[in-house]
Amino acid sequence: MQRRDLSKALLFASASGAAGLTQTAQAQTCNPPCYPVIAGENAANVFQTQYPPGDIRRYFGGETDWTAALARLCDVWKHGLACFIPAGTYPYTTSPQWFVLKDPSCGTSGHSACVALQLTGERGAILQHTGSGPAFTISSAGNGATCVPVSISNIIISGNANTTDGFYAQGVNHSYFRMIEVRNCTGKAFNIRFGVGNQFDTCFFSTNVFPSTINPAQGFCLDHDGNPGYYTTTCTFTNCVAEGFLGMIGCEIAKGSSNMFLGCSFEAVGIGVNIDNASMNNKFDTCWFEANALADVRILGGLDGAGHDVFSVGNAFINCNSISTPTDSGNAVPNISIAKGQATLFQGGFLRWVSLQSVSRDTLFLGTVFSNATGLGITGVGSYKMIGGTKADTSGFVTTTLANVP
Fold first, then answer.
1. Residues 6+ apart with CB under 8 A from 365
2. Residues in a beta bridge with 233
3. C-alpha dihedral sign at 65, 67, 73, 76
4. Measured CA distances, 61 to 29, 31, 46, 80, 265 (Å)
5. Contact by Cβ (8 Å): 387, 393
């Protein structure tokens, strides 16, 4: 089975996503000053008035890199100005803190105006992190603090050997992120902590798109903000990709529930998806798992503070293809392993080998196609039900109708 050419698809999406931005990004042809300082700007931070408010070039004061200009851009962003980064590479040492605490009473007497923050790049805009730590940070102080809604699109975040996370977002809710690419980092490409109701559209770390030589430990990580009660939930990931960094994890759901992954790809990594702790009701729809070295999916659950078992319940895989052939010490191993998982659903799709460990229970297979190779299909002693299961050969043609398991 061959999947589509991801690199070409992403590049096409990149080009189409940038359409319409270029003309508005052009500096006016006139004798400076062209654009006056407006509300939300500090006149002391404006240097290149031939560029419009919100354009990063307007705030460049001739420094040796773009650290100060990026901080000035962040300042006007926090005042509600739509910000823009044209194509080019912008080296900087430290990420500004893009977080703006949400005020539930904004717009009322005695409170500041309500703002929704927007940062857009022209495709080819590269924020080149040259320092240490996270490359791009939107971070609350934890304990449920949340940011005002933000929209960020068409940005490449590139790190170095001292970069930990590429994109770090904590306490960011009801926000939109599109065409964000992370390159070269050592921690998590996308570290999402206490995100609620966010949409991630075509966000990715892919060595097929760009030959990063410094690879993350995890592509996407969904977690809490330091307080387990504030975890990541109801986020939607569409056409997101983590691929091409063997030995690592494509997507880690450490503490997240009711998130949706639609049309995503986790391939050529160590483990496609890890679901841990009491992470429940996450749904993977029409996702692709291939060429993963250790496993496509693992549902592990965890332990609570008293050492008692904690189960991951109600996670679902709809019309997903899981076709990796993982090994451990040279021996073939299941590409899907369910340990402390309960009421896991597999509907449609193609699965090579599913291991149901003894602590798993009530896994449900509906209309699922399994490999017809000897020793594959469903193994293990965990309880399950199956309706309409079949086996198919390597061409995908059905060879066997399986008996229902009530």
1. 346, 347, 378, 384, 385, 386, 387, 389
2. 196, 257
3. negative
4. 20, 18, 8, 22, 42
5. no
Distance CA 63, CA 60 (A): 7
pLDDT at 30: 61
pTM for the model stands at: 0.91
Cβ atoms of 206 and 243 within 8 Å: the answer is yes
Helices in 79-206 by DSSP H: which ranges? Answer: none
Exposed / middle / buried, residue 208 (Cβ in 10 Å: 0-12, 13-18, 19+):
middle
Model pLDDT for residues 201-247, shown as the tens digit of each residue: 999 999 999 999 999 999 999 999 999 899 999 999 999 999 999 88
Question: What superfamily does domain 44-102+115-224 belong to in CATH?
Answer: Single-stranded right-handed beta-helix, Pectin lyase-like (2.160.20.10)
Helices then strands, counting H and E runs in the chain, come out as 3, 38
pLDDT confidence of residue 114: 72
CA 266 to chain centre: 11
Mean pLDDT of 122-127: 95
Q: Name residues whose C-beta falls within 8 Å of residue 169's C-beta, 6 or more positions apart in sequence.
A: 138, 139, 190, 191, 192, 193, 195, 198
Look at residue 18 in the predicted model and tell me its pLDDT. 36
CB 155 within 8 A of CB 125: yes
- Would you list the domain boundaries of the chain? 44-102+115-224, 263-406
Distances (CA, A) of 220 to 88, 264, 275, 391, 400: 26, 11, 12, 32, 37
- 178, amino acid identity: R
Instruction: Say which DSSP state 55 is in.
Output: B
Q: Is 78 helix (H, G, I), strand (E, B) or coil?
A: helix
